[in-house]
Amino acid sequence: MPFTSRMSVVSMLWLSLLSAGKVFAALSFPAPPHGYSNQFHEVNHFSTLANIAGNCRGHFPAIDTAWQEMLSMIDAGRGAARKIAETQEEPIYSDDPNALKEYKNWLRITQPFHALYDVASLAELRWRAQKVIKVYDHLMTRNRVTTPQGPRFWVVCNDDWIVYKTSTFTDPRDIGTPNQGRFTIGDPDPNKPDRESYPEGAYYLPGVKPYLWWEEGYSQPNDEHPFCKPGVRVASLILQGVVIFCEEAFKAPNAPMQAMEGQIRPGDRIDQTQYKNTLPQNWFRELFWYCWNKDDEALDDTKPYSWAKTIDIANTDSKKIMDTAQAYIFYATAMYWDSFYWGHGVAAKSPEMEKEKEKGKKFQGLKDKFKSIAGKKGQSSTNPNGRRIVKKRGNDDNTSHGEDDAGVQTPGDLGCENCEAEPNEANLDFNGNDTQDINIMA
């Protein structure tokens, strides 16, 4: 049975933008399609008013910046994956400065992808990238709404306003209806068969629909802190779309992700506590669980959210890794912190490319050889990797066919053993509709 809540122990890393005195570059992520909004206040129910239960008074700068960084991370991940998916032929090592720059960037975006999703060939790399793009697109669609639709999530702070109520408590789900005051949470309206009853009582979240929460085997009556227990920084109710920031989340005097990049040193691991538990990353994780609306059995295998455990999943279960939140988080983080190379989950100022260099030189030699025997203008030939080379052009530039590219059209023919694996429900929008015909490439 899917859990209806998830407690996340988060090392909140934060320096107030106001007290730090540091001016950060503007965060950027694409605007949504016309008619949609991804502004924080329009996507989330949120308040800083003291008289509103669950208000986040004093914490808006931290939460708003974390929201923007989360969207920027998602966009960085999908931008890199899109580059992979659109690449017809891998760049190879070259001494030419421009070509070398392109080659290094290719290694920057592909080496961590190879590791996190256990892919080898270009065919499988591109195939997997298309599936990963779907996930990032899905997360972006979950973070935008139409104006008539109104906010989708509830972002609240602390849990001292969440109170346990017995089964005889008047059902708040009837507020504003003709049945208001007629039924209790233990004996709800019988004409609503899908309405859950709470014979043991439940915790009441005033103003936050659907108002009630209780999880068998976890909840205890009259718990002083049903969510914000010692050490817990962030909690969420997955099915209800509620994210709760506990006071602990705002105590650690550390920087947001954008400033943190300046603290990274070569040799630092991407899964070090201060780098893997930022507020945007944890928000990303809660969003992922909410979007998939299921038990996080696959996700638990990566705890404590380490690079090594994530790689283990990729190496042993190609389908499971596509449903593993941490793989998407690590990749988006690596692409967001783009001043480093993260091929093995360790910060480096340059990619590992000695073997790649030798492979590039050999392949370039083969390309030159086949280029010289390609025949007269208008003829076609095939390179050693089975790629069909486009008709030779007047400028002697040989490029690969798009439509005839066997690596895209028939991945199984090129040893793409795991190409059938794709994330569950990754092509659904926030209303559960198929997004195949919707332009979600904001």
Automatic annotation (TrEMBL):
Region feature Disordered, mapped onto this chain: 175-198, 374-442
Signal peptide residue numbers: 1-25
Comp. bias (Polar residues): 430-442
Source organism superkingdom: Eukaryota
Compositional bias of kind Basic and acidic residues: 189-198, 393-404
Keywords: Signal
Protein name (Swiss-Prot/TrEMBL): Uncharacterized protein
Organism: Zasmidium cellare
